[in-house]
Each structure stands twice: as structure tokens, then as C-alpha cells.
Task: inverse folding
């Protein structure tokens, strides 16, 4: 399979959640009425966490159906979960810290690394996209098995490795029939469908339950929340808000985040005026060059992600000479993140406070005079 290098496409897939939901893990309506009304989360709207009989449980939802769970999970061994499984017959019992996990995305691998649970990863798909140094070392040494491409993982290796659980994101858009045929249970995550940056970050609590690192996960989220809210308060006092546009063309289409997305929320929280703020879409928009020029041509700031290159004005124009028509190209307002080096994709979903700080520095540098940018840099001349 040819590896996609274009940053706009990767950004659309990883950050804007433009993809297919993989499907339910069981009869979705059966346990809906039994799930408590209280979510047990502060910001996440697609995740509920609660306890019964002292055992933590979770229900995962998708944006298209916030009533019937996509999956219900009991974080205990089957023996300890026996009584709860009678009440929730379609739930999946998951032993915390059981290990031998199959991961579908580097984003979740980075979280497990932060939680100190790298040793629980037994295998991955699309191994080339996993960037954490320790995980790459384990893949190279064979401690973590490379299962091939996510659209068609290698059945022979799946049978040999026998993953205890596959952790799959709803935006993967992959066929998981091979997993089902082999009886490999699936934990679906839909954090990418959250519209609040803190709502997305709060899903670390679910991964904390999965790995037996609940206290660490809660601590990390609380720190992220505190930092994010403090930064948002700082930016809320600005009097002028620069107009912000994002991304660039990919094969004739310009993918941008909808005005109801977490991307739009973060730009607003940083004191920016997102060019598509009046749009209510929570996912991504697929636009023509002309539509973007008409809507965002007069922007002050242009944020984009590039893979594997240092962006300059000539190299940008080499992609499409019409980019010169945008105001930020002329005024020096283009900022880019080289995602081959910056680890923006891996770190930001569960640490939105870090990206919020970057945006504030770019939009209003006077508010954070001592901060040095980590993920973004101005386009070279």
C-alpha cells in the first residue's frame, strides 16, 4: 500500500475525523436503558464511566447515536464480571492491565507510553506510522508484532499472536471482519468525534481503565484541564482576534475542520477568529480552492501541517502557484508544523493545552513572551 505523505490528507484523517465508523460490537439497543444517566465525565459527551459493585464500567457512543452505546465495557476479569454480564449481556469484560493489545493508531500508543504501559502493547497495524522511540525499538526487536496494513491485517500473525483486545478508532475506516472471524474482541474509541478539546482529552480515563493505570490517567487529565482553562482565560481578554485559516489542497480538495469541531473551538479559545466559525459541522469540510479563497483569502494567519519538509514560500508555490493569492502568504502569516518531527498528531489529541499555548503564541505573542514554539514554525522565505 502506498504511504500517504500529504499532510492535508493525514490531518483530515487524524485530527478532523473524516472517516467511517467501524460498527457496533453487539446488539446496540439491548443495554441502552441500563446505562446510568450520569456520565462520570466532565467534558466528554461520547463516553460514560461509572462503577457497579466496585467495578469500573464504560459505555462508548458515536456522534450519530448518543442514546444507544456503540460498546459497553466492564473492566474486570470474566469471573469477577459474571454478575454484571448477566445485567449487561452485550458488554465486554476486559481485564485491566491484561496486556497483549493490538493497536490501530500511534495516538493511542503514545498515551500508553505516557501511562507507562508500553509493555502491554503486543502488536500494531501500519507500524511505519508509530513514532514513539520505545515502541519503534520494540517493533524492530520483535517484542511488538507488525500485523501489516490496517485495511488487511495478516491473519497468520493474528492467529500466532492472539491479541487479547484490539483498540480501534472510529475514524480508521478499516474492515475489522478478520478480527471478528478470529474472535478478537474490540474496544472502539470515538474520542475524535468530541467537539470540545477537553472532551477529547478526557478519553485518557478510558485508556487508564484499560491498562490498570486509572490514577495516572486521572492525574494527567486534571493537569491538562487546569492548564487549558488557565490559558483560555488569558486569551479571553484579547481585544482583537486575527482571522485564521487552515490546511492546504490535496488532490484537488481542501479539507478543513467544520465550525463545530474541536479544532474550531481551540482556535476560538486561543483568541482567534476561525474562517469557518459560522459553519456548524462537527467533522471536516471538503472544499474547492475557489471556495476557500472566497471565505478565507483575507485571513491574517494560515496554519498548515506538512510531512517531512521544511516549508518555504517557493516550495509552497511549487505545490500550487495560486497560494500567492492569500493574504497571509503575502504578509508572512503562514505557520506550519512538520509532523514528521513535531509529534503533533501523537501528542495533541490528549494534550490540547500544548496546542492552545502554540496558538496563543502565534495569534497573540505578547501574551506569552517567554514561550518558545514546539510544534509550529513560520514559513521560510
Result:
Amino acid at each position: 500500500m502506498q504511504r500517504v505523505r500529504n499532510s492535508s490528507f493525514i490531518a483530515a484523517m487524524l485530527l478532523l475525523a473524516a472517516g467511517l465508523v467501524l460498527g457496533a460490537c453487539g446488539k446496540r439497543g439491548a443495554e441502552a436503558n441500563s446505562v446510568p444517566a450520569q456520565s462520570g465525565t466532565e467534558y466528554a459527551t461520547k463516553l460514560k464511566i461509572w462503577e457497579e459493585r466496585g467495578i469500573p464500567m464504560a459505555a462508548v457512543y458515536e456522534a450519530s447515536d448518543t442514546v444507544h452505546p456503540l460498546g459497553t465495557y466492564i473492566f474486570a476479569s470474566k469471573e469477577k464480571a459474571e454478575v454484571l454480564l448477566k445485567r449487561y449481556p452485550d458488554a465486554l469484560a476486559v481485564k485491566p492491565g491484561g496486556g497483549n493489545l493490538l493497536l490501530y493508531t500511534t495516538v493511542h500508543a503514545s498515551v500508553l507510553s505516557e501511562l507507562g504501559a508500553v509493555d502491554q502493547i503486543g502488536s500494531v497495524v501500519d507500524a511505519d506510522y508509530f513514532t514513539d522511540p520505545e515502541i519503534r525499538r520494540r517493533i524492530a526487536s520483535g517484542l511488538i508484532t507488525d500485523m501489516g496494513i490496517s485495511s488487511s491485517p495478516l491473519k497468520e500473525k493474528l492467529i500466532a499472536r492472539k491479541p487479547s483486545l484490539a483498540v480501534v478508532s472510529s475514524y480508521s475506516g478499516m474492515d475489522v471482519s478478520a478480527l471478528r472471524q478470529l474472535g478478537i474482541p474490540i474496544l472502539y474509541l470515538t474520542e475524535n468525534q468530541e467537539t470540545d478539546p477537553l472532551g477529547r482529552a478526557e478519553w485518557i480515563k478510558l485508556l487508564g481503565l484499560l491498562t490498570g493505570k486509572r490514577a495516572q490517567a486521572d492525574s494527567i487529565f486534571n493537569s491538562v484541564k487546569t492548564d487549558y482553562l488557565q490559558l483560555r482565560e488569558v486569551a479571553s481578554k484579547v481585544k482583537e482576534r486575527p482571522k485564521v485559516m487552515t490546511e492546504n489542497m490535496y488532490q484537488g480538495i481542501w479539507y478543513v475542520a467544520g465550525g463545530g469541531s474541536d479544532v474550531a473551538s481551540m482556535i476560538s479559545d486561543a483568541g482567534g477568529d476561525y474562517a469557518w466559525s459560522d459553519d456548524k459541522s462537527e467533522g471536516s469540510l471538503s472544499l474547492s480552492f475557489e471556495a476557500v479563497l472566497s471565505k478565507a483569502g483575507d485571513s491574517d494567519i494560515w496554519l498548515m501541517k506538512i510531512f517531512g519538509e521544511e516549508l518555504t514560500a517557493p516550495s509552497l508555490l511549487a505545490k500550487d502557484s495560486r497560494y500567492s493569492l492569500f493574504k497571509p502568504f503575502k504578509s508572512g502569516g503562514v505557520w506550519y508544523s512538520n509532523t514528521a518531527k513535531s509529534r503533533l498528531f501523537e501528542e495533541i489529541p490528549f494534550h490540547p493545552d500544548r496546542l492552545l499555548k502554540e496558538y496563543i503564541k502565534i495569534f497573540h505573542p505578547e501574551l506569552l513572551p517567554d514561550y518558545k514554539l514546539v510544534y509550529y514554525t513560520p514559513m521560510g522565505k
Residues 1-33 have pLDDT under 50 and may be disordered. Residues 214-235 form the longest helix (22 residues). Residues 23 and 100 are 23 Å apart (CA to CA). The two ends are 35 Å apart (CA to CA).
